[in-house]
Amino acid sequence: MTRRFDIGPIVLALAALVLLVALFLDWFAIFNAWQVFEITDLILAALAIAAVVAAVGLLVPEVDYIDRRYAPWIAGGAFVLVADQVLQPPAGLGSDDLGTGVWIALGATLFMCLGTLLSLGKVHFAVAVEGRDRRRRVSAVDHRPPPTETGEPVERSSSLLEDPPGAGKES
To answer: In this structure, is residue 78 part of a structural domain?
Structure first.
């Protein structure tokens, strides 16, 4: 049984999970997103969770809770929020103090956009997962004569070319 998985929803879901992790890392100096923002962190967390749910819906159509048309808006909204914080940090925190969390979040939102593009584009990249092919042994194949080293056909022995005893003789 062969099962195909599109790469786009997988990239979207993994990037959204990375965005959730990045909210707990240092964004500005020693402060993470939960300590600096009032509502932006909640919106980013909600967008990341919505992206995971949308990706699961793209992979498994029976679990489609969020319409696929909203995926670009979710990824784009997360990218705009993170890019805004990179370009205009909160008051009192300079752009010199950008931590690893903000850069990981920016990369994650870019990959969310890429995953959405791969999911909804006309060209799809997929991974095929196949089951193990179990073949049965056939006695005719198991008892073949070994091949020659030169690749020439194996010559028949002269005893096989002769008439079997009693054949062709009339009594």
So the answer is: yes
